[in-house]
Amino acid sequence: MGFVAALVAMMAMSACNNTSLPRGSAEEFARFETAGDKVFEDTWGEACNELHSLMVVKDGKVVYENYAPSHSADELHIMWSVSKTFTATAVGFAVQDGLLSLSDKVVDYFPEELPTEPHEWLQEITLHDLLIMSSGLRHDYIGRASSGKQFDWARETLAAPFDFRPGTMYHYNSMNTYLLSVIVSRVTGKKLADYLDEKLFTPLGIEEFIWNESPQGYNAGGWGLHISTESLAKMGQFMLQRGEWKGKQLLFEEWFYEAMSPQIMQYEGRITDPIELEKFKETMVRDQWHQGYGYQMWCCTDGAYRLDGAWSQYCVIFPEHNAVVALTSHAGNGATILNSIWTNILPLIND
Fold it and tell me: Is residue 14 scored above 80 in pLDDT?
């Protein structure tokens, strides 16, 4: 069976499932075939890098999808730090439900886990600081936590030393997101995954997922979510539509204007010399890692945003082109993959 013929069969099967995203025509699939294949080739062209899946959604319809051998449409793929954006969205729902505020102090949610003599800066951290990776906490214990070497993740994180005063600089720390997961669970009385199942997954038709937990039974928040490629694309489409799904506003629109905007620049406070700062800015015009950070998601060039996980799990949202590109992989050449999307996919969704 040829590629387009196989896609027509796939589209017919998808049409029977009302939880699936709509599929484009065979002609639309064929139009994206060469570009999609090129992204696969670019990824696999470098040693020890694998692209597992790629899906392109344009104007709300899937216009390209492909899966590498030994991977499939129903695979629950590990998302790594893409999980963070889902956790941030749960925070948004909790704000909408009146259960918390981004100005709340983090220490107020951890009366039992605080150090005997808390650092004065610890008492300044807000939920907003956690969301934009600006808590100031030095150590990211994700390695210790995920390997079972850390028992009480929150207690050890809150006892960590500081690198800077909260809110003044950017420093990526997955334990910030874990703290958010615990906070959401404590104000809702539900595990993060269960709260999102009610608020997000069920409305979007995301029926299957796995989310790893800490020894205390809280979802990891910053990592550990396993979902399918289409579920990832649905999340991108939900964010593209700024919280609206099938005619219903699930999460208030203003949240996405904040979440998907550069709340903090990755170099702020780190390069203090004005001349050196200008030189740095000149070199990062097309650098996808220094365009700013929103609420647990990355700002990109060309008005785009992305969910970003280790080993190149990406969901890139192109608001100006009403498009979403979702992919899973096990690849260390993330820059190559993103460049390939910009080179091969962007021109087509720009038409």
Answer: no
